[in-house]
Specification:
The chain has 166 residues and is an all-alpha fold. It is 60% helix and 0% strand.
Length: 166
Amino acid sequence: MRWAVVVIKLKDTAYCTPVRPELEYGSCVWNPNKQQNINKIESVQRRAARYVFNDYSRYSHVTPMIQSLGWDLLHHRRLLSQGTMFYKIYMCHVGISLPPDVRLNERPSRAPNCYPFKLVKVNNDIYKYSFYPRTIALWNNIPLSFTNIDNLDTFKSNALTFIRSD
């Protein structure tokens, strides 16, 4: 029984160390919007969960395996990466400034964040699914108490909790 736990931890590390970073590389900027592309990326993690537990039966479900390993969905991790990058830009933690079309909304809003950014007007799909329009939509839904935190790690943990619940 002990060896089974050791093997599971070893296989978990074998996925989380070299494979998952490859899947997440550049995910703060590149986040697929088509369900077929999301499914392709998520299928890699689902196959990795089957590999970790050595359970390839078609009658077993992968979701409980992923949950027992404590892995987040890659979709949630990509959203967190986007939100974290926007947080770093907004708080001036990186040398990137907001573009001129990204600005705070002067009008009152019903959004939980009372200082949301104005949604960027988009005429084509290429820019519609790019970083700023998608991230502003996410940012405007994050509660204000999370977005005004000065500590990056605290922001990440609060934002991940919010993203998981959505």
